[in-house]
Amino acid sequence: MQVQRQEHSKLAIIGNVDSGKSTLVGVLTKGILDDGRGGARERVFNYKHEKENGRTSSVAQEIMGFDENLKQVLPERFNQNKNKYWSLVVEKSRKIVTFLDLCGHEKYLKTTIFGLVAMIPDYSLIIVGANMGVSKMTREHLGVSLFLKIPFAIVLTKIDIAPQNVYNETIENIKGLIRSPAIKRTAVVFDEKTGLDEIDKWAALMHGNNVVPMFQVSSVTGIGLQQLARFISRVPNRDEINKAYQTVNDPFQFDIQENFNVPGVGVVVSGIVRSGKAGLNQHALLGPDKGKTFKPVTIKSIHINRVPVESAQVGEFACFALKPSKAGDKLDRADFRKGMILIDPAVKPEPVLEFEANIHVLHHPTTMSHGYQAVMHCGVIRQAVEMKKIFQHEVLRTGDVDTVRLRFLYAAEYLKTEQILVIREGRTKIFGYISKLITDKQLEDEKKVQGIPQQQQQQQQIQQV
Fold first, then answer.
1. Is the pLDDT of residue 122 over 60?
2. Cα dihedral across residues 15, 17, 19, 20: positive or negative
3. Is 399 helix (H, G, I), strand (E, B) or coil?
4. Taking every annotated instance into account, which residue ranges of this chain make up the domain Tr-type G (predicted)?
5. Which is the most buried residue in 259, 340, 454, 462, by most CB within 10 A?
6. How far is CA 414 from CA 288, 307, 325, 351, 436, in A?
7. Is residue 14 included in any domain, yes or no?
8. Enclosing H/E stretch for 52
9. DSSP letter string over 50-107?
């Protein structure tokens, strides 16, 4: 079945643990109210252990469909099977909003950062429990959204159980945080009495990135959900102005986030189209593997929102079934590793081991020097890097801005200049972008240049003897 290409947007749901993120996603996408004991969130979780302890530890995706009048589309009967449920929603919808339900607990922060960096959401909804107030993780998530230039809104949950004094204090703290010199934005507070036209006006202004809408909701009583759903249906797609994407006319590139082995189908990869367009039976290169090589593959089938389609283009989440292009070649899950992509063969991609980056150290407890190692996130790449050179400072401290040279510790990756990167290690957070790629030929030339002084020094020592 081929469906018409729909308008789409992606919302990342972030916030402190136990603030009601997964419950809110379940209530919004399934059209039900929560029972106060987490019944709605069980329809969102991916794994059994998440249901048992009530904490999201992976990136869960759910969709919300809207018809031509931007009224929410809900199937007549709920179906736990996502394939059937999603296809019913997609079939009747003109606009699809994808929710990325991310982790709130600090020990899963790396998964949350991966979701924000690799999945390129249009907006963030920062969830704050009205009975809990602004926590350290709320500030962390807000900071990451700010650096990645993701416009965000605040959603105050659990307003039905929050004591009035705590509730008022939380609102004032959030307003103060948004007015602070680090953010310098205007909070616009909505409640259940706010007119829908007013919400439409502010939703359209989210492109400008200067306002922070603030909603007050209860997933149990339903207060404020109508206003929040209206806002979600009206926020515009940001693909055309998002620098993380190229255009539909550029060479095809697909960032692989997960891979599966589906019985009767074979190897399937899921991810996001970062550049260009892909069609059925299109040839692409899969890689780089640990040996820096790319394998030619063919796209057998394409699914978007669990519905078969004939093409996928820039900005869309998609699943591709792959097969080797060369007769006799095999393709299985052992061929995959983190950070791999599908790319147009005309690009002739060249993976690199070393590169330079302009960085800003947001936080580090002590100092960083030559040889410092930490994990870097850049698109779907998450690999440990080592600091080989610091250009302006002897050591780096919190607040420093500098250019550094980094080297991957395990395998070469395919990078582009201007790509945003996040480096983390414990509470250390460094943001920046790639400024220069160092090719293998340049590395060899540098070794030759370094070798000449060593040879001269050896000759001088021999002459002295």
1. yes
2. positive
3. coil
4. 6-240
5. 340
6. 7, 30, 21, 4, 13
7. yes
8. helix 48-53
9. HHHH----S-EEEEEEE-TT-PEE--SS--S-HHHHHHHHHHH-SEEEEEEE---SGG
- Please tell me the distance from the alpha carbon of residue 18 to that of residue 21, in angstroms, as a whole number: 8
The CATH number covering residue 207 comes to 3.40.50.300
Q: What is the pLDDT of residue 3?
A: 45
The reported pLDDT for the residue numbered 56 is 75
Q: Domain for residue 244, yes or no?
A: no
In this structure, the number of other CB atoms found within 10 A of the CB of residue 455 comes to: 9
Q: Report the C-alpha gap between 164 and 185 in whole angstroms.
A: 26
Q: In which residue are the tokens 């996040």 written?
A: 422
Residue at a domain's end among 300, 328, 347? 347
Q: How confident is the model at residue 8 (pLDDT cuts 50, 70, 90)?
A: very high
Pairing of strands 211-216, 428-438: unpaired
Whether 267 and 331 have beta carbons less than 8 Å apart is answered as: yes
309 and 361, same domain (yes or no): no
Domain that holds residue 281: 253-347
Query: CA nearest 212: which of 162, 159, 176, 169?
Result: 176
φ, ψ (nearest 5 deg) of residue 24: -65, -40
> Bigger pLDDT: 211 or 58?
211
Closest CA to 98 of 356, 272, 328, 294: 272
**Amino acid in position 161:** I
